[in-house]
Write a structure and sequence with these properties.
The complex is a heterodimer.
Chain A: H1 4-13, H2 34-43, H3 57-62, H4 82-87, H5 99-121, H6 134-137, H7 146-169, H8 194-216, H9 232-260, H10 267-293, H11 339-357, H12 365-377, H13 382-392, E1 393-394, E2 397-398, E3 402-403, H14 404-411, H15 427-443, H16 447-476, H17 484-517, H18 526-558, H19 566-573, H20 577-602, H21 615-628, H22 637-644, H23 649-652, H24 657-668, H25 676-702, E4 709-714, E5 723-728
Antiparallel strand pairs in A: 1-2, 2-3, 4-5
Helix pairs in contact in A: 5-7, 5-9, 5-11, 7-8, 7-9, 7-13, 8-9, 9-10, 10-11, 11-13, 15-16, 16-17, 17-18, 18-20, 20-24, 20-25, 24-25
Chain B: E1 16-20, H1 27-37, H2 44-53, E2 59-63, E3 66-78, E4 81-91, H3 100-114, E5 119-125, H4 129-137, E6 141-146, E7 156-162
């Protein structure tokens, strides 16, 4: 827009611009385009345009056809402005002169706002959801209606708080619609007082409730107190329905503020408010019965589709009023959640927030990574994910408390003396800290975005490994007589390098399995995917095992020096349960690879060539990012072909990897008896292994003989290890 | 996307005539089909952008003079690769399931390959099982999932077909 004045000047008087804000250069010159435009106006027909060489698809797509209902967001409005809507009585204050109806309508507005808020959290624009409320758009107008005013104010303050959490977290890469607040009156004066205003209203209604209970038990009504509305039979129900709604808003606002407190200091209070929110939501749900029965008129349509508890259409909303505020895109079809679904959404959100609040503030990085992955399994929405991310990474520190170098220190089992060692000032170490911080942030994003980020991120981990290795060689490679300090440095580098490798393979593993969650692999590609997964898992298990050995060593050194007892030695020679756990994955991946390879090699249906490319191109595409980062080294399409071309039903019969997986899962379960999450995972692995072991036997016995045998793959027992289903057609 | 049997039209595959984009008279036919069948709204500028710049990549399918399917594409440089892009592919319901879409898109892909494209991409709704199966058979992989990609809030897959490198001529 910098050249707008120039354009106007040029078009008005037809003179060359004198005050060009973009100066002419060697290759460009300012010229008057008005004669051309005038000629074009006369010569152009409908749908034609004049454009420069740089006219591209984006420019073409940005054009909107006026009066086309699919594109022109302006034509579908009832009102052209908020003022026009208000003048036409679309949002009256009071809502009704009949105080009973007025209260019911206020509750409808509250319920519909809750539904709008949930729809916003679920990905629609704020402008077309919460801010479709005319009362909210002109909040000052509601001042005479204390109840409505207090509710609208806290809604606005809540929206503002949520927007700030999500924009600070920046997890919303593809969910940018969420934080778009352009043109909306989100910043009102005095919203900091929203809680005291709400408290005052809540206090009045509690007194009205007490008063009406007193009247019903024939006690005297305090004379200074007007009832909420005029129908005494409905007074108690209305008071209760309002109180739970107001209290929910209050506690929800507290939850957001508590979670924002630095260094996780507000998490305990947040949990108390979460519990209160859930109690109030239950009461809100219960109030539906009363709200539906208190009026004789009944509503048409399925009550479960309504956006209010009463089932009535709310007054004072117009979703199209703001449609011109949305980005330069065609209007999105907005489906506001039903009231019931909205309540369910908030229950889920609150549970997700509770999980975040109840996690340890002093975790080991490995368990923290597992926690975030586990948290993502429940598919939390943007708001919960943003909260988690903001809590984890504050001021460049974990939970705003521990510098990431200290976190790595602990995770990589570095010697105690490292904490104060100069090595942490090394450039590569600083970068490593950043990588860990970014890893945590990425793990908090939605699965689709997360996978893409992780794929590119692998390269960074590979680079940091090479840099650290180089630094290590430069500084200590050629020292023969080493002092104590050099010994420490050497140890630090060795541990760090091993740890970086372990993390790199863990990220590669996440990258591959997220492909299953996002349904990126088709059955024909499973063989190569499980083969690659197998290759990555082997490396991961190897690095994990080594890492455990060195950390055990460090831990032992830290303790009192005593002679190794035979018992200790025996324990060391055993494979640690965490590695056995990975071993179980490895067996399943290998078993599936070999079975899929045998099927492909023996049954023509499993080998359907495509007209334009081969399996090689698919391999290149699926694993491009891993291959580019050499993860793992020496793994390529030829090595994949080499290990799978000879698989036959006859070779399959010689070894059953699934039996191994089943045995390991069974054995290792006892080591995880106090880890319910991994215990559950092991049970699933055991089931898949058992099913597939049987399926493999059937295929080996009948596969080559019975042409009616149909083999399919389902994810009924485990999210990324397929269950093999054999049927006769 | 399977059409109901009673909606199906009886026809021989040989009765379908495939035509490369031939000029402005084809434009309303393409626009009508796409507008009817796809969720995204496109302005006339978008259609013209494609068919004016790459008329050789757009095809129409006719049955007894009636336009029953179309494909609209582009190609160009994208991050150092020469890439083809399938923008729109439509076959009207009564004619689905008989290979018309496969034939249309195959013609475009062949043109792209001959024009030196290294790969072909497109986006498809994750719920569009018919399209996903069709492109899967042609060798496309699902390279990415795009969160809430369409205006209707549905996720998309970015599908990609990588051509084998051209054989070195000695």
């Amino acid at each position: 827009m910098a050249d707008k004045p120039v354009y106007e000047e040029a078009s008005i008087d037809g003179q060359l611009p004198k005050l060009a804000s973009i100066p002419a250069s060697d290759t460009t010159v300012w010229a008057d385009a008005s004669p051309l435009l005038q000629a074009a106006c006369a010569g152009l027909r409908d749908g034609e345009l004049i454009h420069g060489d740089n006219f591209n698809l984006f420019a073409a797509m940005s054009a909107l056809e006026i009066m086309d209902p699919k594109m022109d967001s302006g034509i579908v409005c009832t009102y052209y402005s908020i003022d026009e809507a208000i003048e036409n009585g679309a949002a009256p204050i009071p809502i009704s002169l009949d105080s009973t109806i007025d209260v019911r309508c206020t509750i409808d507005i509250m319920d519909h706002l809750l539904a709008c808020e949930a729809a916003w959290h679920k990905g629609h624009s704020l402008a077309q959801t919460v801010f479709s409320c005319i009362y909210l758009l002109r909040l000052d107008r509601t001042a005479p209606h204390a109840l409505l005013h207090s509710y609208c104010r806290i809604i606005r303050a809540t929206c503002k708080a949520v927007v700030s959490v999500v924009s600070d977290a920046r997890t919303h890469e593809e969910e940018d619609l969420f934080t778009m607040t352009y043109g909306l009156p989100l910043n009102g004066d005095g919203d900091d007082k929203c809680l005291s205003i709400l408290n005052a209203v809540e206090e009045t209604i509690s007194r009205q409730l007490r008063a009406c209970k007193a009247t019903s038990s024939k006690r005297r009504l305090p004379e200074d107190l007007e009832p909420l509305q005029s129908n005494p039979n409905l007074e108690e129900g209305f008071c209760k329905a309002l109180l739970c709604r107001l209290r929910f808003r209050k506690h929800f606002f507290h939850v957001l503020s508590c979670m924002k407190r630095p260094q996780g200091r507000g998490l305990e209070s947040a949990r108390k408010h979460i519990a209160s929110c859930l109690t109030e939501l239950e009461s809100i749900l219960k109030s539906a019965g009363f709200l539906r029965s208190c009026f004789d008129e009944s509503c048409e349509g399925d009550i479960d589709d309504k956006t209010t508890a009463s089932g009535f259409e709310p007054i004072g909303f117009d979703a199209m009023l703001n449609s011109r505020l949305s980005a330069p895109t065609p209007p999105r079809a907005i489906k506001i959640l039903s009231w019931k679904k909205a309540v369910e959404y908030f229950v889920k959100l609150l549970h997700d927030l509770d999980v975040i609040c109840s996690y340890s503030l002093d975790p080991h990085l490995e368990s923290l990574l597992r926690f975030v992955v586990q948290f993502q399994k429940s598919q939390p929405d943007l708001v919960a994910r943003s909260h988690l991310q903001l809590l984890l990474v504050q001021d460049g520190k974990l939970y705003g408390r521990d510098p990431f170098f200290a976190v790595i220190n602990k995770a990589a089992a570095l010697p105690e003396s490292t904490k104060n060692h100069d090595i942490q000032k090394n450039e590569s170490f600083l970068q490593l800290g950043m990588l860990v911080m970014n890893l945590l942030k990425i793990l908090c994003t939605n699965a689709a975005w997360q996978r893409r980020k992780l794929g590119k991120f692998l390269q960074d981990w590979r680079v940091i490994y090479v840099q650290l290795e180089l630094a290590f060689r430069n500084e200590y490679g050629e020292v023969s007589s080493s002092s104590n300090d050099e010994n420490t440095c050497m140890k630090i580098f060795q541990h760090i390098l091993l740890w970086v490798e372990e993390q790199t393979y863990w990220i590669a593993f996440r990258f591959l399995i997220l492909g299953f969650e996002l349904e990126l692999y088709s059955t024909g590609e499973y063989c190569m995917v499980y083969w690659y997964l197998y290759a990555v898992l082997i490396k991961l298990a190897e690095k994990t095992h080594l890492m455990m050995a060195v950390s055990h060593d460090t831990a032992k050194r830290k303790g009192k020096k005593k002679k190794d007892s035979p018992k200790d030695l025996a324990r060391e020679s055993r494979i640690p349960p965490a590695v056995l756990f990975l071993q179980c994955y490895i067996c399943l991946a290998e078993g599936l690879t070999m079975m899929l390879a045998a099927l492909r090699n023996e049954i023509p249906v499993f080998h359907s060539p495509s007209p334009f490319n081969t399996e090689h191109e698919k391999f290149v595409q699926h694993f491009e990012l891993l291959q580019r980062a050499c993860i793992p080294d020496h793994v390529s399409y030829p090595s994949y072909k080499e290990s799978t071309t000879h698989a036959r039903f006859s070779t399959l019969a010689m070894y059953n990897y699934f039996k191994d997986a089943q045995r390991i899962a069974k054995e290792v379960k006892s080591s995880f008896s106090n880890d319910p999450e991994r215990l559950a995972e092991l049970r699933k692995l055991e089931q898949v292994a058992e099913h597939n072991s049987v399926a493999q036997n059937v295929i080996c016995r009948l596969g080559a003989l019975d042409p009616s045998l149909r083999v399919s793959f389902e994810f009924s027992h485990h999210p990324f290890f397929a269950t093999v289903v054999v049927k006769r057609s | 996307m399977e059409a109901k049997p009673e909606e199906k039209v009886e026809f021989e595959e040989a009765e379908i005539e495939y035509v490369s984009y031939g000029g402005e008279h084809h434009l309303p036919l393409i626009m009508n089909l796409v507008d009817q069948e796809l969720s995204e709204p496109y302005s006339i500028f978008t259609y013209r952008y494609f068919v004016y710049l790459w008329p050789q990549l757009s095809f129409l399918a006719f049955h007894k003079g009636k336009c029953v399917g179309t494909v609209v594409c582009k190609m160009g440089e994208h991050r150092n690769t020469f890439r083809g892009y399938i923008a729109m592919l439509v076959v009207i319901k009564p004619y689905r399931g008989r290979g018309i879409a496969t034939e249309l898109v195959t013609r475009s892909i062949r043109m792209m390959m001959e024009s030196g494209c290294e790969e072909v991409t497109l986006e498809a709704e994750v719920t569009n099982k018919g399209a996903l199966a069709l492109y899967g058979r042609l060798g496309f992989i699902r390279a990415k999932r795009l969160f809430h990609y369409y205006l209707n809030g549905v996720d998309a897959f970015r599908l990609k077909l990588l051509f084998p490198p051209p054989r070195q001529v000695l």
